[in-house]
């Protein structure tokens, strides 16, 4: 068992801390945000993540997990330190490393053990771990031998705990064999394949994995648009493609594009790194371009259908960037809501978890509803922008009963065409045939 300290208790840091405690390590989580620390000390997670609160409480009670806002206390006995602070996009499009540098400095000033391993969990551009080592070495106040390991995370929000215990691989990168094998030992109880590589390659694996997954999404979205033109069904196409193991079924779900705190930022970040290295990444440039266009594909269908959207009453179902989270960072739903109001539409939105978060961005521009029913009542059309189960389970007859005329623009293919065809609903989805058993089509 090792004394582990986590620096930065955002999504990645808290999940890492809680799960390392769960497999038996002694973990201290440190953050400069005293409010969050107070919440976590009381067993409350500052953000929503399924299963997290139970594990947090359990390990707090067992004495495996501590929280502090005091860097001295957090780092004095630390043998292994995970850096999990944010790496936002800077104004010039590059990756802002100021939190990383600050964390490295804090670590340097407070560590006292003879041997310390610093593990980077944050997504950082290639070469950053070397910079971290430099910052630590130049700011050390005690004589400490510091080794650096890159251990990128591949967790998806909304299933981060599940992913930690069932990931396909754990990547450990280091130029120090001993440090890599100590970190390998720490992760062994997860029972997951561990791949050990050099520092720079580990950093690259993280970015290229996210870029590749984003590429799959933009690719399938373009094929979905083509399916609409030629009359094929993207779900059949994606399924048939995915049966080939070389392609795989995952991340071939067509929709309104990718959002969230990782894919948009990491694709931009990788392009910036390539530019700095004197290379262009043409495929990735196209991935981002397609994603931007896809964002407004639903709205374009609505505009085509109605002529213009001025004064139309529109309900948006879903504001979080994906289900099972209250995260609205780079959420496509938020951009759609914003654009619809610019077109003069009167928007009411509902989300099971992210209403407060959305309000902070959209403010008074739209109305907020506390249920699907409230959101859709008396509306001209519904946009579905997040694939929450609550929307999939919603009885379709209620659209018929509550809307002026049931017209749905579904950006997440939430309903099967078979079930929709049993109702008088005019239904537009992504990459699938348009369904209209109703006689609303002449409505403008
Ligand atoms: C992602 C990566 O999956 C994870 O490995 C990495 O560590 C962090 O970034 P996350 O952003 O939490 O995780 O969500 P993810 O489930 O990957 O979805 C990202 C976006 O892609 C969402 O907007 C989602 O709706 C969209 N998406 C995903 C699709 O449009 N189609 C798909 O098939 C899959």
TrEMBL record:
Keywords: NAD, Oxidoreductase. SUPFAM superfamilies: 6-phosphogluconate dehydrogenase C-terminal domain-like (SSF48179), NAD(P)-binding Rossmann-fold domains (SSF51735), UDP-glucose/GDP-mannose dehydrogenase C-terminal domain (SSF52413). SMART domains: UDPG_MGDP_dh_C. One of its GO terms (molecular function) is UDP-glucose 6-dehydrogenase activity. NAD(+) binds at residues 31, 87, 123, 157, 265, 329. Belongs to the UDP-glucose/GDP-mannose dehydrogenase family. This is UDP-glucose 6-dehydrogenase. It comes from Peribacillus butanolivorans.
């Amino acid at each position: 068992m090792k004394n582990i300290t986590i620096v930065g208790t955002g999504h990645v840091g808290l999940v890492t801390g809680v799960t390392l405690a769960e497999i038996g390590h002694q973990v201290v989580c440190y953050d400069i945000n005293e409010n969050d620390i107070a919440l976590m000390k009381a067993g409350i997670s500052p953000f929503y993540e399924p299963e997290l609160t139970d594990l947090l409480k359990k390990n707090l009670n067992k004495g495996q997990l501590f929280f502090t806002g005091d860097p001295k206390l957090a780092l004095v006995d630390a043998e292994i330190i995970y850096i999990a602070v944010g790496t936002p996009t800077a104004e010039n499009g590059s990756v802002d490393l100021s939190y990383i540098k600050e964390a490295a400095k804090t670590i340097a000033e407070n560590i006292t053990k003879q041997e310390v391993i610093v593990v980077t969990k944050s997504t950082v551009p290639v070469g950053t771990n070397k910079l971290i080592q430099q910052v630590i070495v130049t700011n050390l106040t005690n004589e400490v031998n510091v080794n650096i390991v890159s251990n990128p995370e591949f967790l998806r929000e909304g299933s981060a705990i599940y992913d930690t215990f069932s990931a396909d691989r754990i990547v450990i990168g280091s130029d120090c064999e001993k440090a890599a094998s100590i970190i390998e030992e720490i992760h062994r109880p997860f029972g997951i394949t561990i791949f050990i590589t050099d520092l720079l390659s580990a950093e690259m694996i993280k970015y290229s994995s996210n870029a590749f997954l984003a590429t799959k999404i933009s690719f399938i979205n373009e094929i979905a648009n083509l399916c609409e033109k030629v009359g094929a069904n993207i779900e059949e196409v994606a399924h048939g493609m995915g049966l080939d193991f070389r392609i795989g079924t995952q991340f071939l779900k067509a929709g309104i594009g990718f959002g969230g705190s990782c894919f948009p930022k990491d694709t931009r970040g990788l392009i910036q790194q390539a530019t700095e290295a004197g290379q262009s990444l043409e495929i990735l440039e196209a991935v981002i371009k397609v994603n931007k266009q896809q964002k407004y594909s639903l709205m374009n269908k609505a505009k085509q259908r109605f002529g213009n959207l001025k004064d139309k009453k529109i309900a948006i179902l879903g504001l979080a960037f994906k289900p099972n989270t209250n995260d609205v960072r780079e959420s496509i739903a938020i951009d759609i809501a914003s654009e619809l109001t610019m077109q003069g539409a009167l928007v009411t939105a509902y989300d099971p978890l992210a209403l407060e978060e959305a309000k902070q961005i959209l403010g008074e521009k739209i109305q907020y509803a506390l249920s699907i029913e409230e959101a859709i009542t008396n509306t001209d059309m519904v946009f579905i922008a997040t694939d929450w189960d609550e929307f999939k389970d919603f009885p379709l007859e209620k659209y018929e009963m509550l809307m002026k005329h049931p017209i749905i623009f579904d950006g997440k293919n939430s309903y099967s065409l078979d079930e929709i065809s049993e109702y008088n609903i005019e239904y537009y989805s992504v990459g699938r045939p348009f369904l209209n058993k109703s006689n609303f089509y002449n409505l403008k």
